[in-house]
Write a structure and sequence with these properties.
Keywords: Chromosome partition. It holds the Pfam family FeS_assembly_P. The structure is a single chain. This protein has 197 residues and is of the alpha+beta class. The protein has a domain at 68-104 and 111-192: GMP Synthetase, Chain A, domain 3 (2-Layer Sandwich), CATH 3.30.300.130. The protein has 7 helices and 3 strands; from the N terminus they run H-H-H-E-E-H-E-H-H-H. The chain has helices at residues 19-25, 30-43, 68-75, 129-143, 162-170, 172-178, 182-192; strands at residues 98-101, 113-119, 148-154. The protein has a 3-stranded mixed beta sheet. The longest helix has 15 residues, at 129-143. It is globular, with a radius of gyration of 17 Å. The two termini are 28 Å apart.
Length: 197
Amino acid sequence: MALDNENPLILSASELPTRKQRRKNKELSSKQHAVKDMLSSKLCSADPFDLSDSSDTDSNDSVEPIDEMEIYDLIAPISDPEHPLSLESLGVVKLQDVHLVSPNDLTNPAALSRVLVELTPTVSHCSLATVIGLGVRVRLEQALPPSYRVEVKIKKDTHSQADEVNKQLSDKERVAAALENENLMSILRTMMKTCTE
């Protein structure tokens, strides 16, 4: 099988955002660490599509904020379906393209936070852009609390069929149908394996 992009640009580790850089600028509270630990243990299960975790130990009286960096940390290690590299190292996901809009009152159970992730394909004709977007969307929808609404889009002017891909990624019925396809689920599980290490 011929690859769409046999020689992708690979970013060096020094060019990638890290939690360590952020900690130098801002000290994280122990509650934020608890959220990250909870997300990591919940997200990095053997099967990232297993929704059977019924242990809901969070109390409603303690609201712990999730920021763009934590969302980025959830999706950065996802591997590219064509290359044995992460979406982060290929520059497909970038911290500056993760947007979070949280409600003013986090204690209101009806308040929704909105997450927008803009993907930058490695080539403008990437045939797997929809699969990559689906992987990012599924990862976030299953990892984040139910009060988060996730939208994944192709960044403007980075793909020749961005409108079509965005339409597919935003259509809940198409996404649900895609997740019933066993071949596609196998690809997504392979992409998510790097998240369980």
